[in-house]
Amino acid sequence: MMWVLVVTFLIFFMHAGFAMLEAGQVRSKNVANQLTKNLLTWSVGVVAFFLVGAGVSALVGGITAGGSYSIAEAFGVLTTSNPADWVSWLFGAVFAMTAATIVSGAVAGRMKLRAYVSYTVLLAAVIYPVVTGLTWGGGLLASLGFADFAGGMIVHGMGGIAGLTAAYVVGPRLGRYNEDGSVNVIPGHSMTFAVLGTLVLAFGWYGFNVGTAASVFAVENGELTLGAFSYVGRVALTTTLGMAAGAIGASALSLFKTGKVDTLYVANGLLAGLVGVTSNTNAITWVGGIVIGLLAGAQLPIVFEFVEKRLKIDDVCAVFPVHGSAGVLGAVLLPFFAVDGFTVGALVSQVVGVVVIAAWTIAATAIVFGVIKALGEIRVTRDHELEGLDSSEHGVDTYPEFGRPDTAADGGFVEDESGIIRADGGEANDGGIKMVTAFIRPDKLSAVKTGLAEIGAPSLTVTNVSGRGSQPAKKGQWRGEEYTVDLHQKVKIECVVADIPAEDVAEAISEAAQTGEKGDGKVFVLPVENAYQIRTGEVGREAV
Question: How much is the pLDDT for 401?
């Protein structure tokens, strides 16, 4: 029980990884929505699995195996007082919630929260339990010889296929495809979060795979001895090799396709490698761990491009190539690298199992989402999608302190003895008020602030903006696809002056911001009709 609980907590921690991975791959205006879905997936799903799902799994397993199974026995976890039963249920629950949370990444950025939560309840209560009943529950597929050690197909493959089906029914995000069918790349807001989530998931995966060997200890002659460690070492080894090979495979394909090693493909490939070996990690050779990992990682860019450009399905977090197709691949390849050798019967069993699980998942998911869509409750409105789901669904801003657009930060400042710089001088600007507006490189902000303070004009407004001029466009890359970046990040400075000559301000900005390269920016001097000081009520030059 201690072993099972420890690895269960490791698997639970994978939800932190999913949260960071998905949050990093969505736009900043949808981050809180994605985090909320991850929180509610666990909270709502685990209750549904406890009340209904575990019993459904037991019923399906007993019935499809040709035996009889009473409802009282199936739902025994609700009435038992045996701590071992509760521990066993919790171990199954973290696997169920992993399958559920995978779906959220596919439908990010456009789905109503209540629609997603409704599907999560049904997945945890019925859709996933039917799969486990047919397999781990001793049901039909288990009797046919289908093998899946830790859920490469049962959990990840099922979740990835459900995510792809859901994304198809929901439809793509606004602006994802043009009228001619061409694709617009929509980068996520944080590569840092995506990589952090990847590494957290990889850490938790050792609980997922190695932890499935639940009987590592045994009692012989009244003494504690090692039990299932005869294959725990193999599981740890092939899990590690598959993980590493997945990242290498995705890196190689990315380099071949684009000439660059795409960071997100490396991260996604590492996870695909883990998925690829999860169903077979206890029964394959170390060579199999490497080969399956490489293939799982290498298929990622190919399958993602097929889904995106051929099927026209907007799978935001690439859940199908990472979990779906990689899970299928690993399950089907098990017989080719099995320690006990290849048999045609084993291959047939694996193929049949994959087909049945995929067919059930697609049908059940399509029906649930189809009904929700028919009720008009699946997507947020166009205005809400453009505004962002953080605001429309939750009324929050994930990054409120940065404002919209984000405020520039540089750390440069100049103070006098009193700590405040005041502007003074003679009758400048022909006795009027002028505004100096400049667009500069962000890294030059500190130098410009210093230059303005030195001429006695420290008051200014700073805004992050983007625009284009003479600076040439550059190429960006997101998950192996190039997109043109012709709007460059700039800082807009606005400085209203009365006593200080606007020409002096313009010259100070120009000198401080100059690098001699295209893209240095421009400075404009504009007349200001009037000014009002809100605090004192002063008007005109005195207000400035």
Answer: 59
